[in-house]
């Protein structure tokens, strides 16, 4: 499945900021869920919202504040998806 280039760049930037011991598992679960989110929308392309929703649903709540800080750093607009 294709990824919107700007969203992919933010995703990759965020992944590189995740602590190394959590990075690979985050990549696996978020990548998979982002693709599912896009498919559920009927899209052939992963977009920013798909990625943000994947982080919110797949990353443990214990890492919520770190995740929000990293989203701010890379420029993800996560606010429309908070609490969903």
Report on the structure:
The chain has helices spanning about 5-15, 20-40, 50-60, 65-75; strands at about 1-5, 45. With about 80 residues, the chain is mainly alpha-helical. The chain has one domain (about 1-80). The termini are far apart. Helix content is about 65%, strand content about 5%. The longest helix has 21 residues, at about 20-40. Strands 1-2 form a two-stranded parallel sheet. It is built from four helices and two strands, in the order E-H-H-E-H-H.
Strand content: under 5%
Strand and helix order? EHHEHH
Main β-sheet, spatial strand arrangement: 1-2
Please describe the biggest sheet, giving its number of strands, its sense, and whether it closes into a barrel.
2 strands, parallel
Q: What is the C-alpha radius of gyration, as a whole number of Å? A: 12 Å
Give the helix proportion (percent range): 55-70%
CA distance, first residue to last residue:
24 Å
Segments where pLDDT lies below 50 for 5+ residues?
none
Which structural class do the helices and strands define?
A: mainly alpha
Secondary structure tally: strands: 2
Number of helices: 4
The total domain count is 1
Spatial shape: globular
pLDDT averaged over residues: 95
